[in-house]
Write a structure and sequence with these properties.
Layout lengths: L2 H9 L32 H9 L17 E11 L32 H9 L29 H21 L12 E5 L3 H14 L10 E3 L13 H20 L1 H14 L3 H6 L2 H10 L6 E2 L2 E2 L2 H21 L1 H25 L7 E6 L1 H10 L13 E9 L2 E11 L2 E2 L8 H6 L5 E2 H15 L7 H5 L5
Parallel strand pairs: 1-6, 2-3, 2-6
Antiparallel strand pairs: 1-7, 4-5, 7-8, 8-9, 8-10
Length: 464
Amino acid sequence: MDILTALLLLVHLIPVSTAKNEVSSKSRKRIMPDPVTEPPVMDPVYEARLYCNIPSVAERSMEGHAPHHFKLVSVHVFIRHGDRYPLYAIPKTKRLEIDCTLVANRKPYHPKLEAFVSHMAKGSGASFESPLHSLPLYPSHLLCEMGELTQTGVVQHLQNGQLLRDIYLKKHKLLPTDWSADHLYLETTGKSRTLQSGLALLYGFLPDFDWKKVYFRHQPSALFCSGNCYCPMRNQYLEKEQRRQYLLRLKNSQLERTYGEMAKIVDIPTKQLRAANPIDSMLCHFCHNISFPCTGNGCIAMEHFKVIKTHQIEDERERREKKLYLGYALLGAHPILNQTISRMQRAVEGRKEEIFALYSAHDVTLSPILSALGLAEARFPRFAARLIFELWQDREKPSEHSVRILYNGVDVTFHTSFCQEHRKHSHKPMCPLENLVHFVKKDMFAALGSSGTNYYEACHKEGF
């Protein structure tokens, strides 16, 4: 993982924002808070529960909803990996004991879990792009390793895959029954948690798939920028954003007191505790319903967790207002969005290759894309978050193609910056593909306020 990604992991591990993740089909336009189900005031515990995304009843979703005269042409899925063991440990505390083996009769349960393990065991000779072939295909340690996918994480993506199967395969027949490797495009970063999450979703989507038809490509960058990762201006925006975060933290005396109290409990300097990123481990305690750690000096408490979580939500609010992250996001998300519209345009031409694309990624992949699209109110990517681009053809006007964008099952198409105005002037249920193409090719650079008219120029010229 590159330095930029590592910095981002330190900066953006916490779910933040004020949008509602799940709405009924009757309120498909709403991503604003729902006064009926949202807490009356910002509640850090409520936000943390949403972030955990513990599997429960099947969620209602808006994927695949379209008038009968529209035909689904292609689907592009971006996921964050599922629930994982922490990447950081709180110094001088007992190691979290979480079992990363997969046990069919243990919660969280999924009817395909046992079959998934059996199928993964048959894939040891599968052909993946290097270095993915050296990674395990499913988690299997009695004591989880750092960053390892948990059973919860596997179940989250088995559910995602099954939901997409019911909609895209059973209802819309996106893939032919004799689908081949050419119909799929699969890409993941080189972490076991992303490869395993992608395989879990794929198994839910295509149960007992033929291993010979599956090929995961390796993406070295968490931004999925492929050969277009060198972008000095993007890094400048990130540095300015990190400076803003630092100054906001200095203003928060309650946060500093909280870190001081926690540092005394574990008997280390406050600076060292902060560098250990304790919220990552605390979120794992919270999501797995395990008490926060104790030492001879006392216990880290829920009140400590609430203070840090509240600050993260406030930080996200200021982040939207200051717009420094937006500059980073526009340049960070451009390569993958450009690749996506290129794939859509090939589908429009009638090519049947890569009509189902799956990118198994991280929070630091999805967050810039959400921001670049103008979805400022979308919550920070929870575990197993999914962002989906659907391409549709109007059978009554075959030359017309439209897109829908869905985040965790909510249709957010008309909340994107490139389609907000369209809704005011048209009653069509989707956004013209041209709007998305124009946005990626031109408007993203105009939004930077720079004189650049393409990605290379924008990456090498001062903006704002």
